[in-house]
Design a protein that fits this description.
With about 325 residues, this protein is an alpha/beta fold. It has helices at about 10-20, 35-45, 55-60, 75-85, 100-110, 125-135, 155-160, 175-190, 275-290, 295-320, and strands spanning about 1-5, 25-30, 50, 65-70, 90, 115-120, 140-150, 195-205, 210-220, 220-230, 235-240, 245-250, 255-260, 265-270. The longest helix is centred in the C-terminal third of the chain and has 25 residues, at about 295-320.
Length: about 325
């Protein structure tokens, strides 16, 4: 993988720091509209190429993968441009604002025999697979609760009258799309599509959600997904069954520690070796790329399309619209 990146936010540093640890992965180029910010990111990794015109980076024959980490509203546009240029793509979450856009991009990748993946840590960390395997031990599931409340460093700017991208409807921002998405991915990854999803949001004057609770209804149980960007708390998840429960510590984007509690006692797991969630994500993606595993790409894209639909349905239930994006 010779990766060119789009965007210069902190997520690019976190992801690429782990990516370059993988065999046969190289950080080839940076695209940024600003020479200064692009060069600062490139220099921190020893990358020589900085492009200020996206078309120039996409025309670079040495770049075969593009990592899209631009604002949410630009994911569709940038991913499509990269695919049309013949590049494999890893697109940061949330993949797109709608299922229709996700399916369109998946079809384009298929037509061009390219790999396309969404960057979502939750499904890649070892503890997630351990949680899925442990469900049978706790008996029929009756309740699920996930909490991801993280005070945003940009919330003060919003209070001061500015509109940072993460709180801007025109950029597909908000707590649901930014962090509660992880909770929905966690529940979906374990139990599939719910029969119904509703979102009860706390709204800012500009219409964006600062926080809220999504309720996913399954046969026999409910899942509550709480997320917020204007407050903070302990984070994690509980999956409660008739015979016990599974406890996840830290946000489900990381699943850093987990335990299974039954009448027989508590069994704790710490199998992620102190590595970050981005390490496990990039390890998995590098393996997919090295093996040319198109089937896993197809399966992962089908999952992404489902979750984009869940986000879309949740937004619609709360009356949250993205002007200029929603069709």
């Amino acid at each position: 993988m010779k990766i060119g990146t789009i965007g210069t936010g902190s997520i690019v540093t976190w992801v690429m720091r782990e990516a370059v640890r993988m065999p046969d992965v190289a950080y080839e180029a940076v695209y940024s509209r600003s020479v200064q910010t692009g060069r600062a990111l490139a220099d921190s990794f020893g990358v020589k190429k900085v492009y200020t015109a996206l078309g120039d980076m996409l025309a670079d024959p040495e770049v075969d993968w593009v990592y899209v980490a631009s604002p949410n509203s630009l994911h569709y546009e940038h991913t499509k441009a990269a695919l049309q240029a013949g590049k494999h793509v890893l697109c940061e979450k949330p993949f797109t604002p709608s299922r229709a856009q996700a399916e369109e991009l998946a079809k384009l990748a298929e037509e061009r025999d390219l790999m396309l993946l969404e960057g979502i840590t939750t499904l890649s960390v070892p503890h997630f697979a351990r949680i899925r395997d442990a469900l049978e031990q706790i008996g029929p599931v009756r309740q699920v609760s996930c909490t991801f409340c993280q005070y945003s460093s940009r919330f003060h700017a919003l209070q001061a009258g500015q509109t940072p991208n993460v709180f801007n409807p025109a950029f597909a921002g908000g707590a649901l799309m930014d962090i509660n998405l992880y909770n929905l991915y966690f529940v979906y990854g374990l139990f599939g599509m719910p029969e119904r999803v509703t979102y009860h949001a706390r709204r800012h004057a500009n219409g964006i959600d600062l926080g809220g609770i999504a309720v996913l209804e399954y046969p026999g149980f409910l899942a509550q997904c709480m997320g917020a960007k204007d407050c903070w708390s302990d984070m994690g998840a509980h999956i409660i069954g008739e015979n016990g429960f599974i406890r996840v510590e830290d946000p489900v984007s990381m699943c850093t520690r987990m335990s299974v509690v039954t009448k027989a006692g508590e069994l704790a797991f710490d199998e992620q070796q102190g590595e970050t969630a981005w390490y496990w994500e990039m390890r998995q993606i590098a393996q997919i790329a090295a093996s040319g595993d198109r089937e896993t790409c197809r399966r992962r894209m089908a999952q992404s399309a489902d979750v984009m639909e869940l986000l879309e349905r949740a937004r619609q239930s709360a009356g949250i619209a993205f002007p200029g994006i929603d069709r």
